[in-house]
Fold this protein.
Amino acid sequence: MESKYQILLVEDDPNLSMVIQDYLEMQSYQTELAHDGVEGFEAFQKKKYDLIILDVMMPRKDGFSLAEDIRKTDQQTPIIFLTAKALKEDRINGFKTGCDDYITKPFSSEELSLRIQAILKRCSIQSEASPERPEFYHFGNYTFDLNTMELKSSSFQKVLTKREAELLQYLCKNKGQLLKREAILKAIWGNDDYFNGRSMDVFIAKLRKYLKSDGRIQITNVHGTGFRFEIED
């Protein structure tokens, strides 16, 4: 039985790409292969995928540039970066472009499979969560529609990325509570390692920027512990 999941793999190393594609198809994922960033973007424009796996260092268009182009029109499809570079700056750059996970080469096929499963499971849960009952959040001058991922006020309007929307929803559901960093990371990122922690800080900063027009709304740092999402009356 074929999997319902469609994966786009963009990897310029012919040997590695063949190994990954064969493995994914053994796991019943329907996998399309592109050999560079330009070819990958052309494939993305022609078809809807459930997951995109991008190598970072590629000819003609690198993975970061490709992810930025994808995110201009698609904020929801999850992206995993593959890279031989372990620099934390590259990981942070990857999360800034809107990726959902980051795997450093060499990696095991089991690790890749588990990360894919975790991301697809999270996306599946979200897509099946009562589409007939839109989830709206009202705080300060803002409204947040989880279904459309739109955050807006009288002077501001933005469609959030999937990760931004997940994080804001988590804050809204736990308004006024002290939220430990580890709890947020495990709920949204799946684990609480150092690089995911740095990524979370980037996304917290983004949400603060979006919400700055209403001074009553604060995402407060609690030193050494976590955050508190507060709205003054």
Notes: The two ends are 55 Å apart (CA to CA). The first helix runs from residue 14 to 26. The longest strand covers residues 217-222.
